[in-house]
Design a protein that fits this description.
The chain has 503 residues and is mainly alpha-helical. It has 2 domains: 329 residues, no CATH class; 166 residues, no CATH class. The protein contains 20 helices and 3 strands. A 3-stranded antiparallel sheet has the order 1-2-3. Helix 1 packs parallel to helix 5. The termini are far apart.
Length: 503
C-alpha cells in the first residue's frame, strides 16, 4: 500500500513537472516562423519524406527526421503542417518528456522524490534545454532518448544486482555456444534464401542482426533472466538514441564499462557475472537492427532519387552504403563555423550558439532593438558542475553508490570521446550532459543538507532553496535572448557576460 501510494505521488509530481515544462516551452515556440540554423536540413527532410523525394540530409540516421515528419503530419501534412508550428511541436513534447525522465532518474539516484523534483526543475530552467526544445533539430530527441537509456540501464543494474548469485558453472559456455550456432544457422538460411542478391557486406550485417535477434529472444524466453524488461527497454532506448544521432553510441560505453567490470569481478570470485554479457550484446545488436529496419521503411518502399523520376525502392545494400558514406563524411569534415567550439570549452560555457537574430529601430544604440535566439547552458547550472561532478565521483567511490557512478560515467563517456573527433563540433553536443549536471548539483545540495543538518539545518535549507532560486532568476534574466523576445540593443549586450559570447 505504501509503495503504491509512493508511485502515485511520484506520478503526480512527474505529471506536474511535465505539464509545467510543456507550457513553458510551448509559448511562442513557432517564433520565428522561418527555418533557422539546421532546420534548413531537418525540417526540409520532413517535406522530402512527405513528397517521397530523395532525403538531402543523409549524414545522420533517420529517426529524428521521421519524428519531425510526424510532427508536420499532426498539423495537416503538406502544405498546412509545413510551418514552424508543425516542424517544432514534437521537439517541445520531447523537451517536456526529458524533464519527466530526469525526475525519475534523479529520484532513483537520490532516493528522494523531493530531490528528484529539484533536479528536474534545475534541468527545466536551463537555457540550452529551452532553446534546443524549440527548434526542429535532433538534439531534444537525443537528450530524451539518452535520459531514457540511462534510466532503463539503472533499473536493469539494480535488478541484476538484487538477483541471487549463480555458480560459475551455471549455463556453461558450451551450451551457449550451441545456442549461438543454432541462431547463426537459422539466420544464414533466411539471409541466403531471401537476401542472396545483396552485397557481401549487407549479408554479413543481416547475419549479425538476425542471429542476435534469434539468440536474444530464445534466451529471454527460456531463462526469464532478472531485469529482462529493463534490459529490453535499455536496448531499444539506446537503439533509438543511436538511430537519431551517432554520437549517442557513447551511451553504450557506460554499459560496456559496467558490464565489463562486473564480468572481471565475477571471474576473480569464480562466480557467474550478474550481467549475462552475451545476452546483453545480442539484445542491443538485435534492437539496433530492428530500429534501423523500421526507420528506413520509407526508403525500402521507395524514394525519388535525384536522377530518377519514379520512386526507387532501396535495398539493404543501399542502406549499408549510406552508413559508410555518412561515416566518411563526418570523418573528413573540416568545415569552419563562427560558433564552433572545442570540446574542452563546453563545461566552461565559453561559446554559445546564435540561431536567430532580428534587428529593428533606427540604428542608434539607444533605440535599436534585437530579437535573438541563443543556445547556451544556464551558467549558474553549468559552472557549479565543475565542483559537483568531481564531488559525486568521490562520493560514488567512498559510498560504493551505483547511481552516483552511473551519472559520472555517463557524463565522462558522453563528453571525453569528443577530444578524438576530427570534425567540427558545437556546444549543443554537450547538451546530453546538462541533465546529468543538474543531477550532480542536486546530489551536492543533498550532501550540503546532510552535513549541515545537525549544526544548522535552517541555514542548509536556505542554501538549497536559495540555489534553486538563483538558477530560476538567471533563467528569467537570460530568457529574452533565448526566446526571440524583442529587447533593446543595450539589454541584449548586457546579457552577453563573457567576451567570447560576442560576435
Amino acid at each position: 500500500m505504501i509503495a503504491r501510494s509512493q508511485r502515485a505521488r511520484d506520478a503526480a509530481i512527474a505529471a506536474a513537472l511535465g505539464i509545467a515544462s510543456f507550457i513553458l516551452l510551448f509559448i511562442r515556440y513557432w517564433v520565428p516562423s522561418g527555418k533557422i540554423f539546421d532546420e534548413v536540413y531537418f525540417a526540409r527532410a520532413a517535406e522530402e519524406y512527405l513528397q517521397r523525394r530523395y532525403i538531402y540530409e543523409n549524414t545522420h540516421p533517420p529517426v529524428t527526421k521521421l519524428l519531425i515528419t510526424l510532427s508536420v503530419i499532426m498539423f495537416g501534412g503538406l502544405p498546412n503542417g509545413d510551418t514552424s508550428y508543425g516542424w517544432r511541436f514534437l521537439n517541445v513534447v520531447a523537451g517536456a518528456l526529458a524533464v519527466v525522465i530526469c525526475f525519475y532518474l534523479a529520484k532513483r539516484i537520490t532516493r528522494s522524490s523531493l530531490f528528484g523534483a529539484y533536479a528536474a526543475l534545475l534541468f527545466g530552467l536551463d537555457g540550452m534545454h529551452y532553446a534546443q526544445s524549440r527548434i526542429a533539430t535532433p538534439e531534444a530527441f537525443v537528450v530524451c532518448f539518452s535520459m531514457l537509456t540511462l534510466y532503463a540501464f539503472c533499473r536493469y543494474w539494480d535488478a541484476v544486482v538484487a538477483a541471487p548469485e549463480q555458480p560459475i558453472g551455471h549455463r556453461g559456455w558450451q551450451e551457449r555456444g550451441l545456442e549461438w550456432l543454432a541462431s547463426l544457422a537459422l539466420a544464414a538460411v533466411i539471409v541466403f534464401m531471401r537476401f542472396g542478391h545483396e552485397t557481401l557486406a549487407a549479408r554479413i550485417v543481416l547475419l549479425v542482426i538476425f542471429s542476435s535477434c534469434f539468440y536474444a529472444v530464445y534466451r529471454l524466453w527460456r531463462e526469464r533472466s532478472p531485469g529482462a524488461m529493463w534490459l529490453v527497454s535499455f536496448a531499444f532506448a539506446a537503439a533509438l538514441l543511436v538511430a537519431s544521432k551517432w554520437y549517442g553510441v557513447m551511451a553504450y560505453g557506460v554499459a560496456a564499462v559496467v558490464v565489463g567490470y562486473a564480468a572481471v569481478r565475477a571471474w576473480a570470485a569464480r562466480r557467474a557475472s550478474p550481467f549475462p554479457i552475451d545476452l546483453v550484446a545480442a539484445t542491443v545488436v538485435g534492437s539496433v537492427g530492428i530500429v534501423y529496419a523500421l526507420a528506413y521503411i520509407p526508403h525500402f518502399i521507395g524514394l525519388r532519387d535525384l536522377q530518377t523520376l519514379p520512386p526507387r525502392p532501396y535495398t539493404v545494400s543501399d542502406v549499408v552504403t549510406m552508413q559508410v558514406n555518412a561515416f566518411l563524411y563526418h570523418d573528413h569534415l573540416r568545415a569552419t563555423h563562427p560558433y564552433a567550439s572545442p570540446w574542452w570549452s563546453w563545461p566552461l560555457d565559453l561559446r554559445p550558439l546564435l540561431y536567430s537574430a532580428q534587428y529593428g529601430g533606427t540604428g542608434n544604440q539607444d533605440t535599436t532593438t534585437a530579437a535573438m535566439i541563443y543556445s547556451f547552458p544556464n551558467p549558474l547550472l553549468l559552472w557549479p558542475g565543475l565542483v559537483s561532478v568531481p564531488l559525486v565521483a568521490v562520493l560514488a567511490f567512498m559510498r560504493r553508490n551505483r547511481g552516483y557512478a552511473l551519472v559520472v560515467l555517463a557524463y565522462l563517456l558522453q563528453w571525453l570521446p569528443w577530444m578524438f573527433s576530427p570534425r567540427i563540433a558545437f556546444l549543443y553536443h554537450f547538451y546530453v550532459n546538462i541533465p546529468l549536471i543538474a543531477i550532480c548539483n542536486t546530489v551536492m545540495m543533498q550532501f550540503i543538507l546532510e552535513i549541515m543538518r545537525r549544526n544548522d539545518p535552517k541555514a542548509a535549507r536556505w542554501i538549497v532553496a536559495g540555489y534553486l532560486g538563483l538558477v530560476a532568476l538567471a533563467f528569467i534574466y537570460f530568457f529574452p535572448i533565448l526566446s526571440s523576445m524583442t529587447i533593446s540593443q543595450n539589454a541584449w549586450l548586457q546579457r552577453l557576460w563573457l567576451p567570447s559570447w560576442h560576435g
